[in-house]
Amino acid sequence: MNFPAELKYTQDHEWIRLEADGTAVVGITDFAQHELGDIVFVDVSSVGQSLAQGDVFGSVEAVKTVSDLFLPLEGEILELNSAVEKKPELLNSDPYGDGWIIKIKPANTDFDSLLSVDAYQELVGA
Question: What CATH number is given to the structural domain containing 73?
Answer without folding.
Answer: 2.40.50.100
